[in-house]
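User: Structure please.
Assistant: Input sequence and predicted structure:
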Amino acid sequence: MNRFSLSVSTAIARVTGAALGPYQSAVVRIGFSATWLLFLVREFPHRQELYGPDSPWDWELARQLIDTNGAFTALMWSDGRGWFEAVYALALLAAALLLLGWRTRAMSVLFMVGVLSLQNRSVFMGDGGDNVLHLMSIYLVFVRCGQVWSLDARRARRADEARARGERVSDRVGPVLWAASGFALVTVTVAGRFHSEWSIPALLWAAWVAQGLWWAAGRLRKTAEPRILLDVIGNILHNGALVVIMTEACLIYATAGWYKIQGSRWQDGTAVYYPLQLDYFSPWPALGDLLAASGTMVMLATYGTVIVQVAFPFTLFNRRLKNVLLAVMMVEHAVIAVVLGLPFFSLAMIATDAVFLPTPFLHRLGGWAARARGRLLSDRAPMEAAEPQGQEKPEETRVGFTA
């Protein structure tokens, strides 16, 4: 009994004492924000037809559907072209800043608003990858995804160094951003623009209030208990959200695999053949024909897909086997992106799989990226420092370079 109590206490301390998986959550943040950003950039010339006033699913049809299902979208607040352009630009900006890790808590909320606003405006434009992105944008609000590989982490490190030198550190951007978002929330609420069900508006208000409490707790110098309590709550929400993301990934693969087993084309090993014959899924017809011409390759791809998807949730108890299947699934999604022309679906699934990546591998990946960045900067430095003989570089340029 004492051993059991000790195990429970250790587990509780681990869940409440730290935000686990900082590198995994950072990769998930980078993966989904990059996927959404690339999609918005690619579809920028067609944005009006997809989600805007020129869409076949016009504003009135969208209004009737949303009145029925209670989905959240800011595009229903106005049918003007200018408002649509503003929401689309906000979605682009939030995705870019979340990718860089700037004010990740606020940007994760704006990222969710952008994703839900556009996807719920035209519900027939998405695919499986959009559904995954839809869910993950909500989960990211609860994840402390800026602990590493972010501008927030760099700002926190510099602030700690400044405090160690005895300097006073103040944050002016955070309160301004919090006040502006609060004004927007109050305006929308008072105007009665929230036509959706209560969950998303409540989440927006809860995130805003939590940020205000976090800032206020940080200003209290006499006692640290409020900040410790909020930190514990934040850790619990973060760790719980990571578990939900992992569970979601397992459910996606398990349900997809078991549904495939019930299909006759997956049973006879020919399911992969038919998408290769469709023009919609043939960005490289020659490559598709080459793969379809090999019956053995088609059969292996069909059965291999089913086996990997069904088996993956059960391999989580074996680290080595899990890592092997994880690599196989990521390669499979990369092949789907190239052969079938589904890059954003594949990117969304790879970003979801990234939550299972082992921490030592992510450490090495970060080290490789840091060394590559160092080599790039060291290679550029001699080129910028090189001067034609007989000429002297301007003094202000030399100072700027050495700084």
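The radius of gyration is 25 Å.
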